[in-house]
């Protein structure tokens, strides 16, 4: 137990969840610029990773239920496709305050992992094109790299084409 606590000192709920699950991952830290217009594109550039391998975590409201969408930073979320992927009719971006309150993370640092309240999650199918992808590790300036299969398993995600270029 002490080893686990030591390993997670300064960790985020996302890294704690990954460690507890025994999942293989790599942390990437970078200096976040508060003036950056796009958290995800900033991460891709800072890490020297293709924007197609860096995924942003968005929270949407699908028929009154908050739902997480994980899509490449190089594209956008297709709200109709997201609704369809979870058997819903209508989707809209969630109120940012509700997203922060429900996930326990701040905007720009919302991770699909280790959320305060576990939300249903949809991972864009393009993630499967890569051996590993990067998602927020729970704070601005910190990304976690892991396999798309591990991310899907840990979040019980539906994998569906929900992104568009």
What would your notes on this structure say?
- The structure is a single chain.
- The protein has 165 residues and is α+β, with helices and mostly antiparallel strands.
- The chain contains 6 helices and 10 strands, in the order H-H-E-H-E-E-E-H-E-H-E-E-E-H-E-E.
- The chain has helices at residues 2-7, 13-21, 39-47, 79-85, 96-103, 148-155; strands at residues 26-29, 55-62, 65-72, 76-77, 91-93, 120-124, 133-139, 142-146, 158-160, 163-164.
- The strands form 3 sheets. The protein has a 5-stranded mixed beta sheet. It has a 3-stranded antiparallel beta sheet with strand order 1-8-7. The protein has a two-stranded antiparallel sheet with strand order 4-10.
- It is globular and about 40 Å long.
- The termini are far apart.
- Mean pLDDT is 92; it is low at 1-9.
Fold topology:
Layout lengths: L1 H6 L5 H9 L4 E4 L9 H9 L7 E8 L2 E8 L3 E2 L1 H7 L5 E3 L2 H8 L16 E5 L8 E7 L2 E5 L1 H8 L2 E3 L2 E2 L1
Parallel strand pairs: 3-6, 6-9
Antiparallel strand pairs: 1-8, 2-3, 2-5, 4-10, 7-8
